[in-house]
Specification:
Blueprint (H helix, E strand, L loop, with lengths): L16 H14 L1 H9 L2 H25 L3 H34 L1
Helix pairs in contact: 1-3, 2-3, 3-4
């Protein structure tokens, strides 16, 4: 029986390269849907999709920074920025929901 390590692919930049590369590709590709929707929608829904798109793009660039070993940019700037953008999305969504509930009564 062959050794388990013989079946693994060795990457020059570390074992997490493949995970971060695949993550970055899929995350950046998934930003295409809300970006497209933001061109077609209007009003508050458009604002929400733009904020969501910003979060997705920031998170994708975070994975690229991890691949390139840009720790200060990735961990020090993009990671906190993505948390702030996601929190802003949540606050904006809650305002929209509350505003919508008040207009229905």
């Amino acid at each position: 029986m062959k050794n388990e390590s013989e079946f693994l692919i060795s990457f020059p930049l570390g074992p997490n390269l493949a995970v971060n590369l695949v993550s970055a590709i899929f995350i950046l590709a998934s930003a295409a849907v809300p970006l497209y929707l933001s061109t077609k929608l209007h009003g508050v829904t458009r604002k929400l999709t733009i904020i969501l798109s910003a979060f997705i793009l920031i998170h994708g660039f975070f994975h690229i920074c991890v691949i390139l070993n840009l720790v200060l940019l990735g961990q020090g700037f993009l990671s906190p920025l993505s948390v702030l953008v996601l929190a802003y999305f949540g606050v904006t969504y809650l305002r929209v929901v509350r505003k919508g509930q008040h207009t229905e009564r």
